[in-house]
Amino acid sequence: MSRREAERVASSSDSLNTPALKRHRDPVRQAPEDDCAEEAAEIKALRTEVNDLHRALESHPAIDQARGMLMSLGPCTADEAWGILVEVSQNSNTKLRAVAEELIATTEGEPLPSAIRAALAEALRKRHEAAG
């Protein structure tokens, strides 16, 4: 890859808020052990980022489905449904993905856990008061 192509890739990665790979430094100017330590740290950071992205991709469908449920029941916008899910997650001390999965389970006759039910009722009450 040419230097110009590498710079273009790096700048496009920056615009997506994704860390671009660092350019390798001139080995004459930097000790090899420093270079190895930097590469090891970069690999660790990239692995963490990939794992985080995999988790996000796995939970995305459930969260979208729960948002859709709130939008149709609300009715509310997609952003409002997101806000409700976030508020319920924070106030019930439950991961957002778990809140979404519990809401989806209600379509199969499963009851909402009490902490989520209470937080959802409060979030919807606040939304109703603010709207009306």
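Next protein, fold it too.
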Amino acid sequence: MWQRIQTLWLLLAGVAMTLTLFQPLALFSTQSVMGAENFEMYSLWVKNVSDGSIGKGLITWDLFALGALITMISFATIFLFKKRKVQMRLCVFSMLLTVGYIIDFAVRAWQFKAILDADFSIKFALGLPFIALVLLYLAFRGVRKDEILVRISSRIR
């Protein structure tokens, strides 16, 4: 199980999505008469940087749920090494969920930008879902190669 390269890809994808859950994804900066305010968007909420309060009505539980689901599926897929077809399906499902996470983030960021009337800038953690998407694809390719190898070797017998 641990000697297969797709195990490493799945582990790294799970770690990337775990980091995404707890790191700020974007920064919203507003200019007003009272001064500048900055808001950081996390997977679960949008937080005011200056006083640490969570913006009213700016909860993003759906992003957190998607990120947590992708993380759990990535880690669970590692232990399904004897069921390669299920592993391939879960990799594809995780990739689809990751694309959904990215789309959901884009929609939420656009909404919050309009609500806060703010400038938008991205943080490092926003790149992690894209990295996880690539890692999940690499894991899928590795599992597929194993499945093809097993089928060829059973035909030789």
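About the second fold: The two ends are 24 Å apart (CA to CA).
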